[in-house]
Every structure is written in structure tokens, then in C-alpha cells.
Amino acid sequence: MPLPSRDLSQTLPPHALNRLAKEWLMEDTPNFDLAGLCVGSQEVKARLLCKSPGTVLAGCPFFSAVFAELGCTVEWTYAEGQLLGPDPVTLTAVVTGPARCVLLGERPALNCMARASGIATRCAQLQSLAQAAGWHGQVAGTRKTTPGFRLVEKYSMLVGGVSTHRHDLSSMVMLKDNHVWAAGSITQAVADARSVCGFSTKIEVECRSEEEGREAAVAGAEIVMLDNFKPEDLLVTARALKQDFPGVIIEASGGVTPETLPQYFSSHVDVVSLGCLTQGCPISDFSLKVQRPETQTGR
Predict the structure, then answer these.
(1) What is the per-residue DSSP string for 102-129?
(2) Residue 264 and residue 251: Cα distance in Å, rounded?
(3) CA 22, CA 155: separation in Å to the nearest integer?
(4) I need a surface site. Which of 125, 140, 163, 181 has the fewest CB within 10 A?
(5) What's the pLDDT band for 82 if we cut at 50, 70, 90?
(6) How far apart are CA 271 and CA 226, in angstroms?
(7) Contact at 8 Å (CB) between 165 and 143?
(8) Are strands 271-273 and 138-140 parallel, antiparallel or unpaired?
(9) Nearest to 46 by CA among 264, 291, 298
(10) Predicted structure pTM score
(11) Looking at the annotation, which residues are catalytic?
């Protein structure tokens, strides 16, 4: 599995991290923290434990941001992107801070780590399949993300070594069937989009046949998405389009699963996108355990 050689956390704006941390904490504790009375503010240490061997660690900046908001510190035992295991339980980090603050941050931070690491793990597994097959295209995600959690999930894709695809509707123009039907034709939809997006934004068109793909390419779309094709049909169509439009990016999407992904690998296919990188993705199991004070003896 690929291990990021760069510090991907540098892509995250500090104000975005702070905003998300505040929102998650406010959602979980909108008023009184009644259980906080039981533990007080004495300093404690809590161990972050990963109980899913084979997990690719991801979400560290978000985890740390939650506890920073509460005046706690996090010391990481592993770097983001590393593979955890093979032991059943792996000490991943230690959180230090006032007891009630550590416990206030526990659930929001764990939710983030579990989701982020689960996505990164699946992404790394699928990217490994592409590398093993010698395919030089890109495995990519989609916009099928959890509302309010997209930044975390897109970031996790980066940690897992795949392409995020477009981040939002403003990042790239994607003309789907509804756009085409409303505009009247692929040619008209592309022309309308180009009139406002200019030269700096790519246009992608969702196509259901070779004919639609050709119309999109002739109209000036940079990316042709072959949507919901059977693998054998997609490979034939991709080859035909690449022969006549070598500069057009061909994306395969729709119905692709981790099991069927290798069937879409081809020198004529540049991108394969999968919604399952986020939808229905298994999570990684993490827990946070406050260390008990050492029992004093000899007194």
C-alpha cells in the first residue's frame, strides 16, 4: 500500500480545521457537560488504540484539531498514512489534557478517525490493485460524501493514494443526463457551460453510448464519462474514442465495485471513479482509554 511521502496536512486551511472542530464539539455538547463534574480538570493521559489490524491511519489533523480546541495535546506514535498492525491492538497516539476536556473530545475525535481511516484503507487497497495490474490511470472518488464531512472524506482519499475527483460543483463542470435533457443536447449544454466557465475549468459529460461520447468530444468537452457500461462494452468504446480523440480523458463510472474494478483497467481508460470509496465503506475500530493512576505502594 502507498505511504504518503509528503505532509498532506499542509493542504488543510487552519480555519477550516478549527471550524469543523467547533461544529463537532457543539453538536455533541450543545449545553451542559453533566458528567464532567465526575472527573474534574486534573491532567490525564489517554491512549488512542487501533483495534483493526491493517488500517491505514488517516484523519490525524482533524483528531488533533478537536483536542486543540479543548486545550489538550496529541502525541502521535505513528505518522499519517502508515499501516497499523499486525498486532490486534496498536497504540497510535496519546492525548494529554484536563480529564473533562479529554472526554468531551473523545467521541467527535474517534468518529472522525474511524471514518477517515476506513476510507483511506479502502482507497489504499484499490490503488494497490491498480499498481499490481500495471495500470497507469487514476482510481478516483466521487461527490457521494457524508453531508458536512466532505473535507475529511476527500482528505482521506488523498491519504489512501487515490484521486479526490472534483471537490464540489464549483471545482469542475460535470454535465449529467439531467443537464443535457434540460439544455436540449450535449452540444448545447457544453456550449452554454463553456460560455461561463471559460478556459480555466474543465468540462466533463456523462455519456451512455459511443455516439454521445463522440458528440461530447466534438463539442469540446475535456472529459468523457462512460457511465454504467459493462466492462467489456466500456473497453471497446474507450478504445474507439481514444483513437479519434486522443486528447480526451476517458472516465469509467457507475456500478464499479472493489471486486470488479480490475475489469475496467485499460490503456484507453484514464480514470475509474467509485462511489463505494465513501458510501458503505467499512470503518476502522479505534478507542480512547484514559490511563488509570498508578497504584502507590509501600505507604
Answers:
(1) HHHHHHHHHHHHHHHHHHHHHHHHHHHH
(2) 10
(3) 19
(4) 181
(5) very high
(6) 10
(7) yes
(8) parallel
(9) 291
(10) 0.93
(11) 144
Q: Where are the beta strands (DSSP E) in the chain?
A: 43-50, 73-76, 90-98, 138-140, 173-175, 203-207, 223-227, 249-253, 271-273, 286-290
Q: How far apart are CA 125 and CA 127, in angstroms?
A: 6
For residue 36 the three cell numbers come to 464532567
Rounded to 10°, the helix 99-132/150-160 angle is 50
**Residue among 123, 128, 129 nearest 261 (CA):** 129
Distances (CA, A) of 285 to 49, 54, 88, 115, 117: 8, 11, 11, 9, 9
At 212-262, the pLDDT tens digits run 999 999 999 999 999 999 999 999 999 999 999 999 999 999 999 999 999
C-alpha closest to that of 177 among 197, 203, 207: 207
For residue 291, give the H/E element and its range.
none
Average pLDDT, whole number, for the chain?
A: 94
